[in-house]
């Protein structure tokens, strides 16, 4: 579950150049059989933009692809409209319809590595100038147990509370002070619903996102969904019961959660962008998608910290994405894919010239610059990056200060280690049950889910 972007030159001019270069160079390599042409040229397909993206987002991506191809004339980039979704990824992988290089959540990396479905790119990554600078805990997410590297960690996020400042004002709430406790969140959600008629709080519930959100809430209350070694399911823990009890009360007593369709990542973003949700929880980088796909009004957007229980075990769920290379790629394509991922996602984080060029291009293309990030390398490198791009920042950073001023004081927790997406999928039904059945027995529902989760972990 994550985000995108990246680098260089004048967006308008380069967008045209990108199209012409793609047309001229598209036959250099047969991507299906992976044979490079005799002149050393190679073509790779890459994850481009999400379905539903604004034209400005597409144009800016093409501008960046053109800049890359200008600097690497033997590599042709063929962008694909694509977005990772838990319910369709396995089918796309089996059917061979994925791009040469694509991004998946950290949680998918282990299984893909074990099944030899993505390539070992240790040689290519270790040759990069910043290879020794990675935050070890972040790099571990893309490594096998023997230390081989299977991709680049392209983004790291912490879950945050996204809220609509306009709805806060209409409800008589202070838009500069989002709730910091779960009790306050419930009270604010009810106030928003009672005063505006809009749901005060919404949560995801399908496409594995319901399980992702429920795990996030559980972590914030101090609970866990499975043991640290991934061998024992603990879905029916007291913290999850407490979360679901509050969610049930908000839905059926306060009517503040809304009665509309069950939502996934795209659906909840659409509702929020349309002003039909007061608050929701998602990755700290989601503002980018809200701008690119959902026409969010910058003045209405706010980002705060996820409320935490008063427990030493409470923490914020953190995650990220790995830019991987398909196991179907040949050596030339793998080299080109890592070079592209370095250019598009990574180098700007550690080199000033690349950071400035990227920020300038995005700004000219009216794409977000300055959305809060967590350190892929170290805190000092991230601070330098933020300084480099400061002249081009165009996001409402002051309205995100409740998050940025406190996120480094929160305890970061990795997602469950075993069968993560499968566990999330079965937890979707738990969230759905609470949202759609007034008489749902939380204990009974969780006990059943725990049995199912344990069966997964026993595989």
Structural summary, described in words:
- With about 450 residues, the protein is α/β, with parallel strands linked by helices.
- The protein has two domains: about 220 residues, D-Maltodextrin-Binding Protein, domain 2 (3-Layer(aba) Sandwich); about 210 residues, D-Maltodextrin-Binding Protein, domain 2 (3-Layer(aba) Sandwich).
- About 45% of the residues lie in helices and about 10% in strands.
- The strands form two sheets. Strands 3, 4, 5, 6, 7 and 8 form a six-stranded mixed β-sheet that branches.
- Strand 1, helix 2 and strand 2 form a beta-alpha-beta unit.
- Helix 9 packs across helix 10, helix 9 crosses helix 17 and helix 17 runs antiparallel to helix 18.
- The longest helix has 17 residues.
- The relative contact order is 0.18.
- The N terminus is likely disordered.
Brief characterization of the structure:
The chain is of the alpha/beta class and 459 residues long. The protein has helices spanning 11-25, 55-71, 86-95, 106-114, 122-126, 136-139, 165-170, 182-196, 209-220, 238-252, 265-273, 287-294, 331-346, 352-364, 379-389, 401-404, 420-436, 442-457; strands at 42-47, 75-80, 101-105, 152-164, 279-283, 301-305, 316-325, 412-414.
């Amino acid at each position: 579950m994550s985000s995108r972007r990246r680098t260089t030159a004048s967006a308008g001019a380069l967008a045209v150049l990108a199209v012409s270069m793609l047309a001229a160079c598209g036959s250099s390599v047969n991507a299906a059989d992976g044979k490079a042409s005799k002149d050393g040229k190679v073509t790779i397909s890459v994850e481009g933009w999400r379905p539903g993206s604004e034209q400005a987002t597409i144009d800016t991506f093409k501008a960046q692809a053109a800049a890359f191809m200008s600097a690497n004339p033997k590599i042709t980039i063929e962008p694909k409209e694509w977005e990772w979704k838990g319910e369709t990824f396995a089918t796309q992988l089996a059917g061979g319809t994925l791009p040469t290089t694509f991004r998946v959540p950290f949680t998918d990396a282990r299984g893909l590595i074990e099944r030899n479905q993505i390539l070992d790119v240790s040689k290519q990554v270790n040759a990069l100038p910043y290879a020794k600078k990675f935050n070890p805990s972040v790099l571990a997410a893309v490594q096998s147990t023997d230390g081989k590297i299977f991709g680049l960690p392209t983004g790291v996020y912490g879950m945050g509370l996204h809220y609509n400042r306009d709805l806060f004002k209409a409800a008589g709430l202070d838009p500069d002070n989002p709730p910091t406790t779960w009790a306050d969140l419930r009270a604010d959600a009810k106030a928003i619903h009672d005063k505006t008629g809009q749901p005060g709080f919404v949560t995801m519930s399908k496409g594995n996102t319901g399980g992702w959100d429920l795990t996030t809430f559980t972590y914030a209350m101090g609970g866990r969904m499975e043991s640290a070694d991934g061998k024992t399911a603990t879905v029916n823990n007291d913290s999850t019961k407490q979360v679901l009890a509050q969610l049930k009360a908000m839905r059926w007593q306060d009517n503040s959660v809304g009665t509309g369709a069950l939502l996934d990542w795209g659906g909840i973003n659409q509702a929020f962008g349309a002003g039909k949700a007061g608050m929701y929880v998602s990755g700290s980088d989601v503002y980018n998608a809200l701008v690119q796909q959902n026409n969010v009004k910058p003045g209405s957007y706010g980002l705060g910290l996820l409320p935490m229980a008063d427990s030493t075990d409470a923490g914020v769920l953190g995650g990220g994405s790995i830019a991987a290379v398909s196991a179907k790629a040949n050596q030339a394509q793998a080299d080109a894919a890592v070079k592209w991922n370095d250019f598009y996602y990574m180098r700007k984080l550690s080199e000033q010239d690349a950071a400035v060029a990227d920020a300038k291009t995005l700004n000219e293309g009216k794409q977000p610059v300055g959305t809060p990030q967590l350190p892929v390398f170290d805190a000092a490198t991230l601070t330098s990056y933020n300084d480099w791009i400061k002249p081009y920042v165009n996001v409402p950073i002051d309205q995100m200060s409740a998050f940025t001023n406190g996120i480094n004081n929160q305890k970061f927790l990795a997602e469950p280690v075993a069968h993560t997406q499968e566990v999330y999928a079965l937890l979707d039904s738990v969230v759905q049950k609470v949202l759609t059945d007034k008489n749902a027995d939380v204990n009974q529902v969780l006990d059943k889910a725990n049995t199912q989760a344990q069966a997964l972990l026993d595989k």
